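lol forgot to send this yesterday, sorry. struct tokens for the thing we talked abt
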């Protein structure tokens, strides 16, 4: 009775998230996985965008004034 479920992460989304230059990464991923079709990649990303873009928005912390000491 092994109830463990292993979920593999999507290599396309990992590759895109880890990239610095998003445009060139999209071109490379489209070439690698989608036969150089950027439209298919965009459709794929739109479909999976809801799952990966759940970003928690943090409240901005109001900056306190700087402490000044007189010496």
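and heres what i got for the seq, position by position
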């Amino acid at each position: 009775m092994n109830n463990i479920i292993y979920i593999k992460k999507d290599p396309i989304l990992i590759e895109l998230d880890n990239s610095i230059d998003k445009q060139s990464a999209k071109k490379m991923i489209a070439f690698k996985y989608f036969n150089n079709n950027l439209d298919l990649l965009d459709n794929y990303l739109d479909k999976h965008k809801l799952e990966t873009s759940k970003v928690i928005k943090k409240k901005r912390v109001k900056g306190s004034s700087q402490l000044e000491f007189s010496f």
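The helical segments are 11-18, 22-33, 38-52. anyway ping me if u want another try
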